[in-house]
Structures are given as C-alpha cells and as structure tokens.
Design goal:
Chain lengths: 162, 124
C-alpha cells in the first residue's frame, strides 16, 4: 500500500459502515462520492470518533445530523429516542466501535494489523474535528431513508510497524 | 442464573440485558462499566456466568479475564466475551486468556443463547 490514503485504506470502513448500520439500525445507506477533506468543518451535529494505531495511525469518525442520529439510535436500541442525551451519545459511540471493529477484521484478513481505541463522542451543531497536519482525511458521504450522514477516515501508514 | 455483564457502553449493557431477558436468562443480572468495577462486584457476589466486553477504559476485558482466571474463587466461572474485536488473532488471544466463548457484535439473540448454552453445558 502507498503512503497516500488510497481506496485500499478506505474501502474496509465503507463496507463496515454499510454492513453494521443495515444490520443493527435497519437503514440502507447509499454511498456518495468520496471527497478529500480540505478543512476541518463537519456539517453534522453528532460524531463518534475512534483512534486507530498499529500498521496505520489516525482515526475514523461517524457523523450524523441530529434527526438522523435520533432515528438511527432509536432503531439500534429498539427504544424511542427523543433527543441527543448521554444515552444517545453512548449509542453513537458503540455504533462507531462496531464499525471500527468490523473494519479492523477486514484489514486483518488482508494481513494489516490495527488497534482501535474506545470511542469518544462529540455533540454540537456544525462542530469541527481536526486531523493532525499531514494526515489526509477522506470524507465518505452516505444517503439513507433517515437522512444523510458521513464517515471520515483519517489515516497514515505507520512505518515503525513495518 | 446470576449473570454479570461488563461493558463501558450503557447502550450495550441495556441491549445485553434485554436480550438475556428475551432468551430466558434475565433472572438476575449484575452490571459493571469496566473490569475493575466488575472485580469489585465479584468480590461481594457469586455469579454463574460472566459476559464481558474487551475494549473498556480503566481495566479492559482481557486484563479482567486474566485476573478472574488467576483467582481460585472464580477460575471455573464461564466467561463469554462480547466484543467488536473480530479478527482471528483477537479471538485466539481471548481464548488463551481464559475466555470460554466469543460473540462478535452485533449479535442476534439466538447466537447469544447458543453460546450461553454451550458454556453452561446445557446443549445436547
């Protein structure tokens, strides 16, 4: 794999997102066009973020607008969710954890070993997630029957693990 | 049957509790947010089954399992790890640490039921 963020590094996260969200949240995400992120602004209200180490270093973020987050968490937990509170944030963190875990397995099958952190969740309208300088970030937008959302993959190969 | 479920996610603890009730194992369920808290709960309570996550702050599931297995009081309590860590090498690591069975999130109630029956010796 090259040092730049190629589709080989992004595809496992896309596959994991589609699989996990369709399985546990009963939504059928339709992937949009991949974009190289030029600034730090995220046009969403709730983000689950997981750090990645091992043969690549960076993070994955799963970001929703408020209404989509509420719908997704309602489907996931089987309980009606009325707003963004600590329980909703916890559920978004767990969904991010499941996506990162599934992507980790897909990388493992390609011989790439990664470690994932426990999730953090950011809540705030149009919040910003910064990536370290020199770490490319690919934004993958998705459309669904419950609204649009996105994942952001921010990774660089870790040469010390070669 | 008394079961302790160990997970830092309140959502997952709720989902596991609801699933255990649905599959007939909801009699008595204790909870802990991490391995350290679970060891505190176990110091005052006997349990028939431990269901634990892997990635948790304070004390992760793998460290927790090793501590449980090194204590003669709990060394024969069945442990099921319910985690997103689905890579083959992770499963081997968990089994070596003393986990009896392994469930990858997300899971169905049927899968959890079968794993519980297997570790409790309830299967034909």
């Amino acid at each position: 794999m090259s040092a730049k963020l190629s589709v080989e590094w992004v595809n496992p996260f896309i596959g994991a997102t589609e699989e996990i969200l369709s399985t546990v949240a009963m939504i059928e995400p339709k992937r949009g066009k991949l974009m190289l992120k030029r600034d730090n602004t995220v046009e969403y209200d709730v983000s689950g973020i997981i750090g990645i180490t091992g043969e690549a270093v960076g993070s994955i973020a799963l970001s929703f607008p408020k209404k989509t987050a509420i719908d997704v968490v309602s489907n996931f937990t089987g309980e009606e969710v009325l707003g963004i509170d600590a329980d909703t944030a916890d559920a978004i963190g767990e969904l991010t954890n499941m996506i990162a875990g599934r992507a980790k397995k897909l990388f493992s099958e390609k011989g790439i070993k990664l470690k994932i952190s426990v999730p953090n969740v950011v809540i705030g309208k149009n919040h910003t997630i910064s990536s370290p300088k020199g770490t490319p970030t690919i934004v993958i937008p998705f459309e669904s029957q419950n609204g649009n959302f996105a994942i952001q993959v921010s990774l660089v190969p870790n040469k010390s693990e070669d | 049957m008394r079961i302790i479920t160990v997970d830092d996610s309140s959502t997952m603890r709720r989902i596991i509790k609801n699933t255990l009730k649905r599959i007939g194992y909801g009699d008595e369920i204790l909870e802990a947010e991490n391995g350290k808290e679970a060891l505190d709960v176990l110091s005052n309570n006997e349990v028939d089954l431990i269901i634990t996550d892997w990635n948790m702050p304070v004390m992760d599931g793998l460290t927790f399992v090793k501590k449980v297995r090194s204590d003669s009081k709990f060394d024969d309590v069945p442990i099921i790890m319910v985690t997103t860590e689905a890579a083959k090498e992770d499963i081997i690591t968990a089994l070596k640490a003393g986990v009896n069975n392994y469930v990858v999130k997300p899971f169905t109630p049927q899968v959890l039921k079968e794993k519980i029956e297997a570790v409790m010796g309830l299967k034909d």
